[in-house]
Structure to design on (147 residues):
């Protein structure tokens, strides 16, 4: 009888063990899904050139942003040869010691210009001075002084 009781106890213990709740198995942590960005075709956009302004516009030069300033110069001479324009410019440097002298090329002429005047009145005064120094056929022109 002892064996019978013992076998019944073992069977009951086995059944009790089978009916017990199994420990939960942790599921592995899923890594987040990284979505690749949608590739868009590259389209180069060229900005439209700004409309030219009469005063105070800026452009980028070799030394960074440059303020564009419009002003007045006095043209004292024009020649078809660079050599003649340089001779007159050198002479003008002595006569107009306090003014900048410029030789510019505008096909088919080389032009000699004097001064960097912000007002037309200053340019007219410089024109009178050039006339008194003996220059003929002189006139005032409007230019971009930053160039």
């Amino acid at each position: 009888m002892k064996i019978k009781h013992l076998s019944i106890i073992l069977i009951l213990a086995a059944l009790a063990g089978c009916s017990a709740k199994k420990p939960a198995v942790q599921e592995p942590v899923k890594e987040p899904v990284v979505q690749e960005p949608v590739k868009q075709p590259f389209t180069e956009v060229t900005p439209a050139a700004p409309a030219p302004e009469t005063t105070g516009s800026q452009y980028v030069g070799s030394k960074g942003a440059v303020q564009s300033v419009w002003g007045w110069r006095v043209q004292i001479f024009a020649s078809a040869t660079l050599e003649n324009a340089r001779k007159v410019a050198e002479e003008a440097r002595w006569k107009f010691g306090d003014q900048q002298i410029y030789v510019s090329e505008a096909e088919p002429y080389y032009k000699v210009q004097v001064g960097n005047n912000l007002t037309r009145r200053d340019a007219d005064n410089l024109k009178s001075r050039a006339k008194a120094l003996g220059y003929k056929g002189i006139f005032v022109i409007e230019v971009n002084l930053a160039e």
The first strand starts at residue 58 and ends at 61. The mean pLDDT is 79.
